[in-house]
Amino acid sequence: MSEAPKSEAPETAAPAAKKAKRPLWIAVVGLLLGAVALWGSSQLVWFAEFRDGGVRGTIVYTEIGSTRAIALIPLALLALAGTAGLIATGGWPRRVLGVVLAVAGAAAVWIGVADGPFTGFADGLPVAQMLGARGLAILGGILVAAGGLAAIKGAGRMPRLGAKYSAPGAKKRAAKDPETELWEALSEGEDPTATR
Is 95:73 a contact under the CB 8 Å cutoff? Predict the structure, then answer.
């Protein structure tokens, strides 16, 4: 009589589980960093020019990102909410969320690139802050888009919140060796040779 096949060793099961979780956490960290970068960019100076201040003379007029590029804060909030959605969903809802996040990231990159010149500033303006703010928006957009693309690519492999607590009938059965199924049927007290 042949022995029942041995189940997969715990040593090989643990690295496989860690490997499946890695893309999820990479996407989550990317989205969180992207949200922080977009919010930070919205708090920096995006526009500055010299204006006539009347009695005060010439003054430097500035606008921060939340005033000049008003989409930055909503995009940061979308990336933050997308982080929670990415953890909680799975399958095609995660893919749809990934598409939304990738588009939001591309929009943030576009805002950073298209919102004015990169050269030709007058002396005395906070040029470093303006360029840093736009660079931060571009970086944040790239991180959010990368998180969205990772969600699209790994939607089926990434674990989702509460998956291990699903009802037993909801889990798909993996393809098993016929001999293993016979042994399991015997263990459960069924006759594996009976026709069903």
Answer: no
pTM exceeding the 0.85 threshold for the entire prediction = no
Cβ neighbours, 10 Å, residue 39: 20
The bridge status of strand 58-64 relative to strand 45-52 is antiparallel
Alpha-carbon gap, residue 156 to 20, rounded angstroms? 10
User: For residues 53 and 82, which has the higher predicted lDDT (pLDDT)?
Assistant: 82
Say which amino acid occupies 135. Answer: G
Q: Average pLDDT in the 31-40 region? A: 95
